[in-house]
Amino acid sequence: MSITTTTHLNFRGDARAALELYGRVFGGDVTVVTYADAHAAQDPAEADQVMWGQVVSPDGFHVMAYDVPGRLPHERGVNAFFVSVRGTDADEVTARWTALADGATVVQDLGPAGWAPLYGMLVDRFGVTWVLDVAVAHEG
Questions:
Q1: What is this structure's pTM?
Q2: What would the pLDDT profile of 99-136 be if each residue is shown by its tens digit?
Q3: d(CA 27, CA 55)
Q4: Burial level of 79, CB count in 10 A (0-12/13-18/19+)?
Q5: E strand or H helix at 100, and its extent?
Q6: What share of the chain is helix, strand, coil (3-state, %, to 5)?
Q7: Residue 115 burial (CB count, 10 A)
Q8: d(Cα 102, Cα 17) in Å, to the nearest integer?
Q9: What angle do CA 40, 105, 11 make, to 5 degrees?
Q10: Helices vs strands, H then E, count in the chain
């Protein structure tokens, strides 16, 4: 199995602009899935905001980002990132999820998502927010 960790940045309405800037700066490809794209918009005003996004450059730069929905607390610069763990093997990702989930608060159960075969989010017993997912076949 191959596994990587990636900085996952959290914004309130600025994720697309930030990803576009980082794409220009680091020469990477920008990918954005909006809440509307994922059929997950709970507030119509947030439908075009980023539910999942990333910049990946040929030289190895990789950052992910999303717009924290208005129903969740967010203060700029506070809880500004997650640790994102992406693997290629669903069984391995599931095993790591299960181990991290001991004593954790599950934010999103590990399961299929619009951008990944498996995706889940939890806050471990130390207060660190982890995002685990299985990479789609065409990603490197």
A1: 0.69
A2: 989 999 999 999 999 889 999 999 988 788 889 999 88
A3: 9
A4: middle
A5: helix 90-101
A6: 20, 45, 40
A7: 17
A8: 36
A9: 50
A10: 2, 8
Instruction: For residue 55, list its beta bridge partners.
Output: 30, 63
DSSP one-letter code for 96: H
Between the alpha carbon of residue 122 and those of residues 13, 87, 138, the distances in Å are 22, 16, 26
CA 27 – CA 62 distance, rounded (Å): 11
For the segment 45-60, what is each residue's pLDDT rounded down to a tens digit?
A: 999 999 999 999 898 8
**What CA dihedral angle connects 32, 108, 91 and 128, to 10 degrees?**
90
Predicted confidence (pLDDT) at residue 139 exceeds the cutoff of 50: no
Give the single-character DSSP code of 68: P
